[in-house]
Design a protein that fits this description.
Shape: rod-shaped
Distance between the termini: 136 Å
Strand content: 15-25%
Strand order of the largest sheet: 12-13-15-16-17-18-19-20
Radius of gyration: 47 Å
Number of domains: 3
Bound molecules: ligand C2E, magnesium ion
Largest sheet: 8 strands, mixed, barrel
Structural class: alpha/beta
Number of strands: 21
Length: 688
Amino acid sequence: MGGFYLPGLLLWASQFSATLVALAAMLCLTGSYTVMIVLRRAKAMRAGRRMSWFLALCLCFGANVWATHFIAMLAFDPGIPIYYDTTRTALSILVAVLGAMPAFALLLWCPAMRLAWAVAGVVLGAAIGAMHFIGMSAMMLCGSFGYNPVSVVVSLACGMAAAALSMRVMQRTAGRGAFRAGLLLAAAICGLHFIAMGGLVITPHSHWLFSPFITGKGKADLAAAVAAVSMLLLITLLISATTDAKLVERQIEAKRLWHLARHDDLTGLLNRRGLRERLSEMTGEPLVLISIGLVRLKPVDDLFGREVVDKLFCQAAARLAAQLQLADILAMPAGEEFVVLRAIAGAAGEPLAFAQRLIDCLSEPFKIDGVTVQIGACAGLVCSEGSGEGAESLLSAADIALREAKAAGAGQARHFTMAMSARLLRRHQLEQEFEAALRNREFLLFFQPLFDCRSLTLRGFEALARWQHPERGMIGPDEFIPVAEAGGMITALGEYVLEEACRAASTWPEELRVAVNLSPVQLKSPVLPEKIWAALARNGLAPQRLELELTEGAMLEQTAEVQLSLAALKDSGVSFAIDDFGAGYSSLSYLHRFSFERLKIDKSFTREITASPDARIVTGAIIGLGAALGMAVLAEGVETEAQLNILRKAGCGQVQGFLLGKPMPEQDVQTLLTQVAKAGGRAVPVLS
Ligand code: C2E
Ligand code: MG
Ligand code: MG
């Protein structure tokens, strides 16, 4: 019965029912594949949530091995009746389940251990073997049986080797080779069973016991029942492992999307949405919200590119994080802007000092890819007593304060006040009303006379825009020019001012010039020269009578096109003045690139000139600089005779100020001109 040469093999094989063997093999394949899927699922779980899948895995393995063995035994018909001891049969299942436990525990909890797959394979092979031989010992027949020791050893070795290989496939492919691994495990189970069966030696007794339980149709029905129950168990497990995996995948994806929607992808900090949600959770608690804006980023972007700017953001985030306490929240609600949230504790002045520290840490130079980059920062703060302000209103209050801080210059921090929001509201309203105001000709020009410093001869007028608002009254340019610049209406306003200035000047005596202020935004228009020439031509004004005033800021941002425009205008006879000299950046480099006819000393120097020797020295130096560079010098804001006298002594060319004439409407200019004419050409300044 135990021979393995061909006729012997055929004789041996004839003792098995082919249908039931096929059923056992099919069940074994399904079961082994299920084992792999459940193993993969258990592996994917976090260690804490793995236990239930581990138990299901061991149960699945045990049930699979047992059911395969049992059906294969039912397929076996040595010619004498066999029946099985229930206790031992049950024990054999238990052994298979328990035997699998150390193997799978090792794979799941110590996957990094060297040769874990081999150890697990040997243990699983042993479990299959133990199940098989205990299951065999449950066999009760009319005779005795024993084993060929060689086939026992070979069957165990094959079972262990194939099981180890299947575990190796699972480990190496990170679970993707579940089908191959399942095939190998099925080979381990079936191989062990049939090789061991090959070594089974049955010696029948001469007198048989008859049992209806184990013969004929009853046998096939039992096999079908075992197979059906096992299959049901295995398929249930297979479906739950697969759907659970999909569910977890979906949960992970949902979590990822949730995180993505609430975090900045560059710095990983909370974005505006995430911050808003956190803030909403915190309403009711007293807190301080600090909005930090980075300034001077544009030159970094222009010089070094976006990549460096991105790295700068990451470094800035790290620096800010280093300043925070554990409970503080750092967010990046917009590019170039960070927000820090802190539950308020301590004195009222503390948030401002904290904001200043944040600004300071960002004002230190950054080293990025071998280049050193220096930027600045400003901060807007808003404190909440927890009286239920909405997240959005806190954020916008901090933004308003930040805007004011930025207007005050780099390094500034401002607490939000209601006056700020009133200013902003007014600004928005002006922006809304601007275009209609232009159409309704609510803008008018005032003219301020410019005099020769020594002789006080009238030299011309500076055109200064005013907004005669029907409800709000007269609005000054310091308020509406920034609105027009930000809203893009400055070009239209500038054209209107030019037209009106040229028209008014064309009615004045020929020797008087008109000075018109140009915004840096207007300079960027490529058609600026054409527009100016057209205005001059329409009003019959000689280009020599027009002077354009530019600020230092406008000169710093110059492009090649702007320089070409300025040069073309200059060639046509239009002259240029540098306005508010000394009040801005005072980078003198632009004076080489473009030669101005006039330099206008800012009124802040004139104001100080009588009281401060330093202001006198600076004013004197500016006049000297003008003379050396061949530029005429005009001092703005002359309000007293003392100032006028000092300027005269310092050799200043021209003056402008309330002492000699305030900005006046066009009809008053005509009165002044009549007085000048009556004085025989000599200027008659209105000394107040
Ligand atoms: P700016 O060009 O420096 O004009 C001189 C400003 O100083 C005017 O203010 C004028 O009223 C004021 N001022 C003149 N004399 C004195 C004085 O003795 N004391 C004092 N404290 N101030 C004096 P205004 O008209 O409010 O204009 C402010 C600024 O608005 C101007 O400064 C100019 O930069 C800008 N601006 C005015 N009109 C226009 C315009 O049509 N286009 C553009 N782009 N900017 C304009
Ligand atoms: Mg000016
Ligand atoms: Mg000025």
